[in-house]
Amino acid sequence: MISVHLYGAPDACYFTPTNCANASLATIAAQVAQQENKLLFVGEYGGASPTFTGPSDEDQKFPVAMLEIQAENFQQAGAFRLSAIWF
């Protein structure tokens, strides 16, 4: 198993279809894990810490995008199978 931690910065692109460093890291990690015949575990990921009113819609973009990438990779029989959200 290969494990990485990814965090969204306030100005991060949150895995939009543009050339994003965070998206590139997740994609590259999944490709390396696949090549090594290992699973990818994103051991921690998250955005800004929630306030007493909960995370804003903007704060939820990164975690939602991470789950979407994981689900898509799983459907394609990729290596990205496990993740754990962390705020």
Structural overview:
The protein is α/β, with parallel strands linked by helices. It has one domain (2-85). The chain has two helices and three strands. It has helices spanning 21-35, 57-75, and strands at residues 2-7, 40-46, 80-85. A three-stranded parallel sheet has the order 1-2-3, covered by helices on one side. Helix 1 links the parallel strand 1 (2-7) and strand 2. It is elongated, with a radius of gyration of 13 Å.
Mean pLDDT: 77
How far apart are the first and last residues' alpha carbons, in Å?
23 Å
Describe the global form: elongated
Biggest sheet strand order reads 1-2-3
- Total beta-strand segments: 3
What's the number of structural domains?
Answer: 1
Characterize the main sheet: 3 strands, parallel
Provide the gyration radius in Å: 13 Å
* Unreliable stretches covering 5 or more consecutive residues: 14-19
Structural class: alpha/beta
Q: Helix count, per DSSP?
A: 2
Share of helix, binned: 25-40%
Element pattern in H and E: EHEHE
Report the portion of residues in β strands.
15-25%
